[in-house]
Each structure stands twice: as C-alpha cells, then as structure tokens.
Design goal:
Layout: H1 23-60, H2 68-98, H3 112-116, H4 126-137, H5 143-159, H6 169-187, H7 192-206, H8 214-245, E1 253-258, H9 262-273, E2 278-284, H10 292-302, E3 306-311, H11 315-318, E4 324-328, E5 331-332, E6 338-341, H12 344-353, E7 358-361, H13 392-395, E8 410-413, E9 420-423, E10 426-428, H14 433-444
Parallel strand pairs: 1-2, 1-4, 2-3, 4-7, 7-9
Antiparallel strand pairs: 5-6, 6-8, 9-10
Helix pairs in contact: 4-5, 4-6, 5-6, 5-7, 5-8, 6-7, 8-9
Length: about 450
Amino acid sequence: DKKEKKVKPPPPGGYAKKPQLTKAERREMQEKQRALKSQATEGDSKKNSKEGNKNNQKSGGGGGGGSAHKGETGGGSAKSGNQSQNTTKTKEVIQPNKQLFNHLNAYSLKNSESIGLSSSLNDTHPAVAALGLRFADGSLRGANARCFAMLEAMKEVVRDYTTPPDKALERDLHKKIDRSFQFLTDCRPHSISMGNAKQFLRQVVSQLDSNLSESDAKSEILSEIDVFLKERIIVAGSIIANLAAAKIRDSGDVILTYGRSHAVEQILMNAHSLGKQFHVVVVEARAPPGVEGKGLLERLTSVGVSCTYVLLNAASYVMPHVTKVLLGAAAVTSNGAVLGRIGTAVVAMTAKCKNIPVIVTCETYKLCEKVPLDSIVSNELGDPADLERPDSESNHSNKSNKPRLLNLRYDLTPQKFVGMVVTEVGMIPPTAVPALIREYRRDAGIQSGSSDL
C-alpha cells in the first residue's frame, strides 16, 4: 500500500496575494537580483584562488620554514607536473598527424605465397587468381589495361559457371562475381573504372530474362561483355585519338605529356601517321611508376618522333617552350576534377600559370559520380620504399629519426586547371561532365548513387 502524501491545509483566511508591480519596479528588482548573484560568484572565485595558492605553497616547499628535503620533493612534483602537461600537449599535437591517413588501406607487399595462403583463394577461379597475382606484383598497370583484363577474367568465370541445384542463376552468379571482384581488390585496390565495369556486369546479370536457359543466359552475358569491351574501351580509345590528333598543328607544336598514358600514346602515334611534324616533351617522376615514361620515349623515338625527356622537377623549366599539354586520366569526377597518377596536378598547375591549354583524355566509362574534395579522402598507397634513397639507411640509422614515408599513387587536379576533356562523345569542358554522367546513367537505367566504387 502506497503511503498518501500529506498536504498542508491553507492558512485561515487563504494565501496572501502578491502585490502587483509596475514594469519599472519589476526591472529594478531584477537588476538587484543580478547584482547579488554577481557578487556571490566573485566571492566564491576569490576563495578558490586563495585556497589554490595555499595548496601550491605547501606542495612547493617555498614557504621558508620547510626543510630542504620537503623543498626537493616539492620541486620534483612540480617538474613531474610540467612533464605531464608537456606529454599531454605533445599527444594532442602529434596524434592527429598519425591518424590523418589511417582511413587509407595500408600498403602490404603481396606475392604468390601470401596470396596462396588466402582463405578466399579456395572459391576463386584460376583466371581471377592469376590476374590478382599480376595486380599484386605490379606487372599489369593502367586503368584501361586492368579493367580490360578484369572483364576478360570475368568472362572465364561466367563461361565455367554452373548453377547449383535449388539456386537461381542471377543471385548465385551475383555472389560469384562479387567474390571474384573482392579477391582482385584484396590483391590491389580497384580503380574507379573497374568499379564502373563491375556495376555494368551486375546490371547485365540482374536484367536477364528468368525464362532463359543457363547456356542462353551465359551466352548473353558474354556478348554484353564483348560489346562493352569493344565500344567503351577499344573504339572509344580510337575515337579519342582521332579527335585529339586533329588539335595537334603541323610544324611547330610542342606537346608535353606526363608518364605514359595509353590514350595519349595513341593520339601521338595517330598524329605522326598523318605526317605532322611536332616535338614531344615526356615528363617523368622519380619514384615508380617512373619507368613508364621511358617506355613512351622509346616507342615515340622508334617511329621518328622528336622527343625530350625531363624529370618532374624540371617541368617549370621546359613549360615556356610548350604549346599544349596532353594528360591521361584514371577518372574524371562529377565536379570536373581529374584523378590521375601522382604528379598530374603539378603539371596541370604549372601549365595554367603559363597560360598553356591542358587537354585531358578520358573514356566515358571512367566518369565518376562522386565528388572527392582532395587527394586524401580516397587514394591508394604504394610501397614507401620507392621513396627512399639508396643511402637513406646510413643517414637514418636511428629509427626514431627516420621519417614516415607516404607514397600516394594518385592526385586530384581541380577543375580550374583543366581546359578540355576529350571523350568518345566529343570534346567537352569539365563543367559538362555532370550532364554527361546523368545521360549515361539514365540510358543504362542505373539510379543515382548506386555505383560500387
């Protein structure tokens, strides 16, 4: 049983009513209350400061009457207090720097032995496993080459696929494709073009007619992959090469390019086959993939194209003699920014300072709906040992003095440094990229934001 609360009865005659105050009287009363509160808070703060000073004098041993032993211990505690403050300050400053790139997947050297020990290798197709090993050791590079090889491996997966009993082909094949794609991503993080190609493949499988037999469904998937490879990669590359080669003037044009891009190489070879006389400046980075520019140099000089080979730090020196800059791209984002190999942004910005037009080549299947703000939000890490000098171990024998190296593979060139983007649908300004993305996604029946990148 709950106890009932006792309520005091009202006094005889009722409660006295409060006198009604005017606005001026109420304001005066509120000001008096604020003054009393401020005086009370000031008094409390003075008492606390006095008590704190007394405690500090007792612990410090500086009162004159304390013994030497007490003074020493007091000084030690003061020093330890300062040290603890310093350590907390250093933690606050250094810790964010350590965590700045923690969201990126750490680089790990993969080989046939480490990949062979992977638990996911048991359900992986041999063609996918062999391709993953090529991704891991760096023998296969380039956005077009990696995407083309991935789709060829997926064709082998589809060709050898057999639907298990009591399972639907669409759902089970989706899982098979996802596992194969994840294995390739574990070997090396996938590019944006590979993510778009995987999204296309999933779309093809999901739109299959449920009444088709297994052999007919597989043949339809294989034919769709062949159409994608031909139209979006092979034919698109030749169209881009013809469009951009028309922009190269005969006799007197000096073209600067960075690294080795398959699309840029096609453009230069097409222009040379038309009989145009021009000079090419190949800019190279020191760290890998620094050997790619030499391959482009050997290819051009073998057919008789006049070339100059410089490193990235000499780009500003040769830029005044350049008339056009041709750059490849790993992807072009929805805000018109260009994602390319590390160092592309430096070349584009240097050209912009000299008022030299920058032309970027990119197939439409590399267009990305996402809008990265910088190169740190999403990137791929390379081997830090590539940035070390041969004598770095002798200079940094102490591990504490050895710098932490970060080898980013890509950088992001802002839209304002790009003059034109050459695609298979034509030459467009970077501001028109969002409209082109919307058109392609609408034709493919893909909803916005559904890409697996």
